[in-house]
Amino acid sequence: MNDKPALPNPTWFVGCGNMGRAILDGWRGAGIDLSGVTVIRPSGAAIEGVQVLSSLSDAGAAPKLIVLAVKPQKLDEVAAQLQPLLTSETVVLSILAGVEVAALRDRFPEVAAIFRAMPNLPVAIRRGVTGLYTEGGDRRIKQQIGDLFAPLGFAMWMADEARLAALGAVAGAGPAYVARFIAALAKAGEGRGLTSEIAATLAVETVLGTAWMAVAKGESMDSLARRVASPKGTTEAGLAVLDHDQVLNNLLALTIDAAASRGAELAEEARELPADARVQPS
Length: 282
Ligand SMILES: NC(=O)c1ccc[n+]([C@@H]2O[C@H](COP(=O)([O-])OP(=O)(O)OC[C@H]3O[C@@H](n4cnc5c(N)ncnc54)[C@H](OP(=O)(O)O)[C@@H]3O)[C@@H](O)[C@H]2O)c1
Fold this sequence. Notes:
Blueprint: E1 11-14, H1 18-29, E2 37-40, E3 51-53, E4 65-68, H2 75-82, E5 91-94, H3 101-107, E6 113-119, E7 128-134, H4 139-149, E8 153-157, H5 161-172, H6 174-191, H7 196-217, H8 221-228, H9 234-243, H10 247-271
Bound molecules: NADP nicotinamide-adenine-dinucleotide phosphate.
């Protein structure tokens, strides 16, 4: 018996760049059947194991599930093209940062249900973080959407869209911040005479090992740092720089605040429905 979660057939990915691709890679890695998936992307660039079309006009029968994976700025353009193709059975799953359910409902008033997912890039290797959100709706569909993200790493339902936005600022964007930290650690190593290749390996392996150990042992970051830093030792000297005036905490707080503010701007922009785009339910 195949107990893998099943994708509704047909499922369309409208847009499939970095993030759409990461989700598909994760599902493929989890052994989920992708044969019912059609990707619509203007470039028509091929993706392993799925049908790819460059235009919605060739996509055929109305889909049961649409994964919206375009940039938020493209929402109105694709909503106008999708509108005639949707039915009251279609489920829309949006991964658009910032764009709230109410804004999606304005664009897709007749669909069966609207879900938001805020994944991060490591879903591609099934070590991602995904926040999920919906309002009311059918428990069976909610279970199905949750089951599809569970194999991609850590997935959780968020109580409201404010908390989904917070998750997006921390975890959705997070891999970029961690990548910058790793690069900075490597650069500092180069500054001490290591080759760039060795410095890069040491930095990435150190972050990986630390995160892995924290998860495996359930150890707090404070305790972990204490176990590395012996009194008056080298690590303590380094930590004194990071901890001075809460410099690292403040930097990260500013970073997350900036991402959250941009998310709020995107939400605000998406609340404005273009005058010619208001769709009347029939
Ligand atoms: N990247 C992340 O880590 C991340 C994390 C969480 C959420 N998100 C959200 O995911 C969404 C996509 O981000 P991304 O990073 O994957 O962007 P991306 O790499 O630029 O991908 C955008 C996709 O949209 C397609 N596209 C553009 N115009 C289209 C149209 N008119 N019809 C259909 N498809 C169209 C592009 O087609 P081509 O492939 O043909 O160019 C591309 O596949 C965004 O809304 C973002 O907020 C991203």
